[in-house]
Design brief:
- The protein is α+β, with helices and mostly antiparallel strands.
- The protein has two domains: 59 residues; 110 residues, START domain (Alpha-D-Glucose-1,6-Bisphosphate, Chain A, domain 4, 2-Layer Sandwich).
- 40% of the residues lie in helices and 25% in strands.
- It contains six helices and six strands; from the N terminus they run ααααβαβββββα.
- A six-stranded antiparallel sheet has the order 1-6-5-4-3-2.
- β3 and β4 form a beta hairpin.
- The longest helix has 23 residues.
- The two termini are 20 Å apart.
Length: 193
């Protein structure tokens, strides 16, 4: 899976102001004043509402991640929470077929690698339910985590939900989001053939 490390938008005070009406610095001051002591989820939701961007999650999330970076907010492992992306797809195939298309013959502890140079380790495999990969995007030093769940939607359809977590840069986040969408489109086409 080829991941192009580029953002959908430039991350700068000027581009933020053009899109949201305020610079990153102005949003940081707003967060300090209006969202002090609130958790990540509530603060990002408040940013969605304040930016007036509706369902556009790009700028509110980027503002919050850049805010955390500016404040040095990190988890116990020394990394920021970063970006978390979600990719979903409903595929007209059985749960087992979808699971097998994603996992193949892998076993827990096996190495993961793909044609795009991404690597990792399969850390959890529950056939017909879910899979987890300790993930390393090609060209990126910081590891991330990928969780994929498979749910029977009835009438021969499966819901596939992927969460890719702890992504540290907008370039990787946007690249990974685009690549997973393409991957699941391809998987859908192959399985629904």
């Amino acid at each position: 899976m080829k991941i192009e490390l580029r953002t959908d938008n430039e991350v700068s005070d000027a581009s933020c102001k053009a899109s949201t009406g305020k610079t990153l610095t102005e949003w940081f001051a707003w967060i300090d004043q209006e969202q002090s002591g609130k958790g990540r989820r509530d603060a990002i939701q408040a940013l969605y509402d304040a930016t007036g961007r509706g369902k556009d999650v790009w700028w509110p999330t980027v503002i919050w991640v850049e805010y955390e970076k500016s404040k040095g907010i990190v988890k116990k492992d020394g990394l920021a929470e970063g970006f978390n992306i979600c990719s979903t797809k409903t595929i007209a195939a059985s749960v087992d077929d979808c699971y097998n298309a994603f996992v193949g013959s892998a076993k827990e502890g096996d190495a993961y690698s793909d044609s795009g140079g991404n690597q990792g380790t399969w850390t959890r495999l529950r056939p017909g339910k879910d899979a987890r990969i300790a993930w390393q995007t090609a060209g990126v030093e910081t590891p991330t985590q990928v969780d994929v769940a498979f749910a029977d939607k009835g009438k021969g359809k499966t819901g596939v939900t992927l969460m890719h977590q702890r992504i540290q840069t907008p370039e990787e986040s946007d690249g990974v989001r685009r690549a997973w969408a393409e991957y699941f489109d391809s998987m859908k086409t192959k399985l629904e053939g």
